[in-house]
Design a protein that fits this description.
Elements lengths: L1 H9 L6 E5 L20 E5 L6 H6 L10 H9 L1
Parallel strand pairs: 1-2
Amino acid sequence: MESEIKKCLDNPHVERWDDFYSNQDWFCSKVPVPSDRPQPKLVSKEVSFKVSFLKQWSGESHMEYFFDPKVLRHLVMG
């Protein structure tokens, strides 16, 4: 995975990578990059969902990004 992340960050066609993640979403996490090597292209933003344990366990919480005001505002306004 590390090499694929590096390819994306080194790709000249990728100007910016906005990474939304939530601790309530067990299908994804913050993009893992070494803390000693800052990545100016990569902007990670934590969002918080109010979901049940069952939704976390089943993966249903992954759909919450489509309804989160912070994510939607970013998609519309940049």
